[in-house]
Specification:
Layout (H helix, E strand, L loop, with lengths): L1 E5 L3 H13 L3 E5 L2 H10 L4 E5 L7 H9 L6 E5 L4 H9 L4 E4 L4 H15 L5 E4 L2 E4 L4 E4 L2 E3 L3 H12 L5 E2 H8 L10 H13 L8 E4 L3 E4 L4
Parallel strand pairs: 1-2, 1-3, 3-4, 4-5
Antiparallel strand pairs: 6-7, 7-8, 8-9, 10-12, 11-12
Length: 222
């Protein structure tokens, strides 16, 4: 799961990043409202965490702007605990509101609830000629069905969600296999190889690039 954290307290932000990554989440962190708005509207996230008091653009205006173009679940993290503050935050488009100081376990639980509640009845991902139906658990390329094993499906889903971005072996181990150490095996490489073979079975161009010294990249146009 991919989160956007918009928080100007560097110490708190790093603590949250470490805790979320321990839970298998990928976290993108920005320190001001303008960067937060740019990231939230340019990229896809499963949930967005927003501080109410941010430099550049305050959290309330950030959420209003995001809501014009995105339905991503949003939770505020803030010291602004008044009833009026909460009402304004929710009316601006936030889905939940958590007061600082808070327990990480509660934040994690609220994010899980938000993302479950916001999950669409039908969800499809696309990357060029590849179409993935997350509900039916099917994959096609140029209309041809591709049979994938469950772990290959998860791997392709992660690559599509990060299309045109280089992802490292470590990112794949953590987000696809939930392994937070190096197992010193070729599990990533062997799965990438098999996934390539299935995607390219009908003579298609290779949609998965090897990025030398980094990892892999799925081409959004293929």
């Amino acid at each position: 799961m991919r989160l956007l954290l918009t928080e100007d307290d560097a110490e708190l932000a790093q603590s949250l990043i470490d805790r979320f990554r321990d839970q298998g989440y990928e976290v993108v962190h920005v320190g001001d409202g303008i960067q937060g708005l740019q990231a939230a509207t340019a990229e896809d996230f499963d949930a967005i965490i927003v501080d109410r008091m941010l430099p550049g653009l305050d959290g309330l205006e950030l959420v209003k702007a995001v809501r014009r173009v995105k339905t991503t679940p949003i939770i505020y993290l803030t010291t602004m605990s008044g009833i009026d503050d909460r009402v304004r935050g929710l009316e601006a488009g936030g889905d939940d509101y958590l007061i600082k100081p808070f327990a990480f376990e509660e934040l994690l639980a609220r994010i899980r609830v938000m993302t479950r509640r916001q999950a669409p009845a039908s969800a499809k991902l696309f990357a060029g000629s590849i179409e993935m139906d997350l509900v039916a658990r099917t994959v096609t390329r140029r209309g041809r069905p591709i049979e994938l094993l469950p772990q290959e499906f998860r791997l392709l889903e992660y690559l599509i969600r990060n299309a045109d971005r280089a992802v490292t072996r470590k990112m794949l181990l953590e987000n696809v296999w939930d392994i937070h150490f190096d197992p010193h095996t070729s599990v990533v490489e062997s799965h990438i190889s098999r996934l390539r073979g299935r995607l390219n079975a009908h003579g298609e161009i290779d949609a998965i690039q090897t990025v030398r010294g980094t990892g892999y990249r799925l081409l959004a146009s293929n």
